[in-house]
Amino acid sequence: MITLEHVSKSYKKKQVLAPTSIEIQEGGAYGIVGPNGAGKSTLLKLIASLERPTKGTIYFQGNPYSSSVKEVRQSIGYIPQEIALYEELTVKEQLDFWSNISSKKIDDAFVQSMKETLRLDEVANKRVQNLSGGWKRKLNLCVGFIHNPSICLLDEPTAGIDLAAKEDILTWLKALHQQGKTLLYISHDRYELHTLSDQFIVLMNGQVVFHDDKEMFQHTKSQLLKSQTGSQELERIISYL
């Protein structure tokens, strides 16, 4: 579905993602892990078409991103770490606004299902500025996926929120995966990673050091640890998983 061929990204003279070649399969759930500064968010932004590769090519359904930008963006939903909401609007107004400006026809049944699972009807008339962090995260998720994308990209979607809000989000993400959506998400939470993902992408210093299913990760864990000797932070992450 999505293929990266020798894709790298540099800002000025600093390379943040080394040449990377990976395939993202339709319907897969990919947990992206690695130390801070490893290149995780950059990888996600490149796949979301929010950043352009310095070198290499990204393909969607066999076509380069450059020739299918509209199709790519209609197929992808991206949830950044930062909350991207209008603080003065109510939850209902927020959803109506993003529905009205969507370039893709809105599936009302999908939006209603999302609202019900995330329990957003409970706070429909509250202004965003008066919501807790958990409610904002859930609304941010709903806004980002309001166009019913087939590929869902999330950068730490449950960071800093309460357990109840986290469970609501995980329940919805599991439902999306069961519907055949492709998930790629960054997380530092072992429970999330093992609950949602069927594959891991592990990065270190801008390099993908592992990309395969969870079972293969367990089989090659000791070998991976040996290959990354000297990186205590990555060693801790690999051992943690």
UniProtKB/TrEMBL annotation:
UniProt key word Lipid metabolism: no
SUPFAM superfamilies: P-loop containing nucleoside triphosphate hydrolases
Domain ABC transporter: 2-230
Keywords assigned: ATP-binding, Nucleotide-binding, Transport
Gene3D superfamilies found in the cross-reference section: P-loop containing nucleotide triphosphate hydrolases
Record keyword Transport present: yes
Single GO molecular function: ATP binding
Domain of life where this protein originates: Bacteria
Sections of the chain in a coiled coil: none
Entries under PROSITE patterns matching the protein: ABC_TRANSPORTER_1, ABC_TRANSPORTER_2
Listed PANTHER family: ABC TRANSPORTER ATP-BINDING PROTEIN ALBC-RELATED
Entry protein name: ABC transporter ATP-binding protein
